[in-house]
Specification:
Mean pLDDT: 88
Number of helices: 8
Number of strands: 10
Strand order of the largest sheet: 3-1-2-5-4-6
Low-confidence stretches: 218-223
Structural class: alpha+beta
Shape: elongated
Strand content: 15-25%
């Protein structure tokens, strides 16, 4: 049995959903019945099955979420499955399948019908949620010995996007308050989580590192 099973729900002759279901073990007949009941439209059972409804397959485009992170959809769907006794289900992602209109350029159709930030085309039905991506090794950024230039260099080479205030703030934080070098992982986390978008400085969110609450003022600078 493949790692990912596929269940299809037809919406119209040119469009269907594909439910990509990963399980920790094969589902028995009773469990499959519950899953079908959850995924199928109540009054349109005939439009649900384990084979695609779109023909010809050569003209089908499938668009779905990027696989690096489990989506909120999957988190909620798995929770519902577990509440219904389907504890074997570990991930459930929904993709969209289109029959490209005659005369329409396929690449143009793909570009017009997905969000490049969160989605991408599946060239074939998913067989695994594994991406094959290898995480970068964790290393220390030597701020104590190298000074603020080390943080500027890391910011530039990694594309982290810290501005001058951020660079000064985090250099002073690690060398003056915490008195240690940060890791590359910490700097990426801070660059994202401590941004205005995530932390909302305007509403006075608190930053805690190593069990210490970090003040909003360092070196007399106020964000």
């Amino acid at each position: 049995m493949p790692e990912v099973q596929h269940f299809y729900r037809k919406v119209n002759p040119e469009f269907e959903y594909c439910f990509n279901v990963q399980t920790s073990a094969p589902l028995n007949n009773e469990e499959l019945g519950i899953l079908r009941w959850l995924l199928a439209e109540t009054f349109e059972i005939k439009n649900f099955g384990e084979k695609s409804f779109l023909k010809p397959a050569v003209n089908v485009v499938e668009l779905g979420p990027r696989l690096s992170f489990e989506t909120a959809y999957s988190t909620n769907a798995v929770a519902i499955c577990h509440a219904c006794g389907l504890d074997k289900i570990v991930r459930l992602e929904c993709s969209r399948r289109y029959l490209v209109p005659a005369g329409r350029d396929k690449e143009e159709f793909i570009s017009d019908n997905h969000d490049r930030m969160t989605e991408y085309p599946y060239p074939e039905p998913l067989q695994s949620f594994t991406t094959g991506a290898v995480p970068e090794e964790v290393f220390k950024v030597p701020l104590i010995s190298g000074g603020v230039d080390e943080l500027k260099k890391f910011n530039r080479e990694s594309g982290l996007g810290m501005d001058d205030w951020d660079i000064g703030y985090y250099h002073d934080l690690f060398t003056g308050v915490l008195q240690r070098d940060p890791s590359n992982v910490e700097l990426f986390m801070l660059g994202n989580n401590n941004s205005e978008h995530s932390r909302h400085w305007f509403f006075k969110g608190k930053l805690i590192i190593d069990g210490q609450e970090i003040p909003d003022t360092l070196m007399g600078i106020v964000r």
